[in-house]
Amino acid sequence: MAGAAKRVATTRGAGAGNRQASHARGNAGDRTRYIQGNTVRKLDVQRQMKEPPRKKISNSTRKNREKAFYMNFPYVMFLASALVVMGIVLSGYIQLQSGITRTVEHISRLESELNELKLSNDEEYSRITSSVDLEEIRRIAIGELGMRYAKEGQIIGYSTEGSDYVRQFSDIPD
Predict the structure, then answer these.
(1) What does the pLDDT look like over 125-139, one tens digit per residue?
(2) Which residues have a Cβ under 8 Å from the Cβ of 165 and sit 6 or more positions away?
């Protein structure tokens, strides 16, 4: 590369063998120099070494490649139809996603409503249980209705088979 120039950073006053160096224009304290001549480094030597040399292409090969890049009417129609099908599929996908989002939001609202109803139910239950006077119920049962506490022999036990309650289908024997 005759006549090529490259700007390199060097120390002040350093000479470079057979290279021709001249001061860069600018401040006297500038430490850059221009190196000119055939000793200038080639920056893309490594890239050139890695790339394989290109072969010359015959005219028939070049024409075949040009035909391969040429878009004819059926090919354009195929691409247009593929684009339309893709648009329909994507719009369906987006509709499904929005439907799922709406369903999740609806479920969230219903869960929130359920939690509010449970809280209200628990508050009402605790209000009712706290307002019941058990002593008054005992006084009315014993005094007015003539009820008595059960004696030792009056209690009959029944075994249950996995159920929380017992159904009585006939009278209990004495």
Answers:
(1) 999 988 888 889 999
(2) none
